[in-house]
């Protein structure tokens, strides 16, 4: 698979996963009473898909090298957590909000650093990523503290809000930092001819 195709798959995958994450979070906001087993399975599948896309992104040749710089290790972690949630989710359902909070907080911290790198690159919309990452990180931290002990509609609403922000954060990263240049991936002798 060539570099340009891999990058397009990674970027489009990032966008699709971000939209799925937003839809999942919005679903929880609208109806926090989802059955626990559906919630667990959905999170497991989303984590696994997100992990795979992150690993594909890491091996793509992104022009700015910003979006995917930490995604190999984080992608493996997401895929492994997704698999663990699918296999043993019922056992760990009480800890699910804390684990989700840690994942969201970690991703937000990586994105804060990435937004500052984007500023150094001269990307004018770096501050949007920073703002969304900070808000996402705050909600992730609240999930880690787990003020509702993982129970009730308020806990699910908090999860929904955090997941929506996580999806928006991933969407911002995909749209603002992943640059696809056809010329970038051409052989050097071909670039001078166009």
Short description:
The protein has seven helices and no strands. By secondary structure, it is an all-alpha fold. Helix 1 packs antiparallel against helix 6, helix 4 runs antiparallel to helix 5 and helix 5 packs antiparallel against helix 6.
Structure commentary:
- With 194 residues, this protein is mostly helical.
- It has one domain (3-186).
- It is built from seven helices and no strands.
- α1 packs antiparallel against α6, α4 (96-121) packs antiparallel against α5 and α5 packs antiparallel against α6 (152-177).
- It starts with a helix and ends with a helix.
- Mean pLDDT is 85; it is low at 182-194.
SSE topology sketch:
Blueprint: H1 3-30, H2 36-58, H3 71-88, H4 96-121, H5 126-145, H6 152-177, H7 188-191
Helix pairs in contact: 1-2, 1-6, 2-3, 4-5, 4-6, 5-6
